[in-house]
Each structure stands twice: as C-alpha cells, then as structure tokens.
C-alpha cells in the first residue's frame, strides 16, 4: 500500500471518529413523540387499507346509471320520509366520486407521512438533528399529523355513510 493511500485511509478514519463524536445524543422525549406519531399514522394506514375504496366507485357508477331515474322520482309527489330517504341516497351517490378521490388521496398522504416520520425518527436517533432542529421538525409534523387525523376520520365517516347507503339501496327502490 502506498503512503498516499495509507495516509488517506487514516485521515478518513480519524474524520469519521471526529464527526461521530460531534453528534448530539438523541432526546428520548423527542424519539417517543415521533414514535407515537408513527404508531398513530400506521394505525390510520391499516384502517384505511381495510376500507373497500372501490365501494365509492360502485356507488358512482350506480349514480351514473340511475341519475335520470332519481331525478324523475324527485318530480313525483313524495311524502316527507320518502323524500328524505331519496334525497340522502342521491346526495351520497352524487358525491361518491369525490369521496373516492379523497379516500385515495388521504391514503397516499398517510403513507407519505409514515415514511417522513420514520426518516425523522432515524435522523433523531443517529444524532443528525440537534434538539432544537428536531423540536422544530416535530412541531411541524405534529401539526400535519393532527390535520391528517381529521381527514382520516372524515374518510372513515364517508365510508360508513357509503356503506349505509349501499345497504339501503333496496329500501330506496321500494320507496
């Protein structure tokens, strides 16, 4: 081995040791907070993956197929209960495509957030971020997670509504 290569190798080893010594020890509270957000988003991801996103597509297709029949029934004289039932079903069918789009978007946002949080956790753990930088990033992620949780709950609510409408289609046909 030549002197140049040996010198370069020794400098690289020494530099690696110096940079490792300058890293900040991870803050356990920050690591725990990020891990908690990861757990929350992974649970949301599992829940959203369990929901049948195609149900919205089937409802949208049904809306396309039965739109004229619904509109014609609205022109008939309906009792209050029948009008409410028909109107509720029609509104969900009409909005099914946008609910499907929102469901898919929220699933993607949750997946991206899980990846970002895992990377942040790793960066904190290896000391790539100091406590101040980490705190700033955690605060930003916390805001995004809280907003995303609202969207996850809205998506679940939309799914429950779609499920209810799907289950009640026979009731509308007979009304």
Write a concise synopsis of the structure shown.
The protein is mainly α and 175 residues long. It has helices at 3-22, 28-50, 54-75, 80-125, 131-167, 169-174.
Keywords:
175 residues, mainly alpha, 88% helix, 0% strand
Protein model, in words:
This protein has 175 residues and is an all-alpha fold. The protein is built from six helices and no strands. The chain has helices at residues 3-22, 28-50, 54-75, 80-125, 131-167, 169-174. The model has no long low-confidence stretch (mean pLDDT 86).
Helices and strands in order, then pairings?
Layout: H1 3-22, H2 28-50, H3 54-75, H4 80-125, H5 131-167, H6 169-174
Strand content: under 5%
Chain oligomer state? single chain
Tell me the helix content: over 70%
Strand tally: 0
Outline the biggest β-sheet.
none
Shape: rod-shaped
Instruction: Look at the structure and give the mean pLDDT.
Output: 86
The topology string of helices and strands comes to HHHHHH
Question: Total helix count?
Answer: 6
How does the helix and strand content classify structurally?
mainly alpha
Detail the poorly predicted runs. Answer: none
Distance between the termini: 90 Å
Radius of gyration: 27 Å
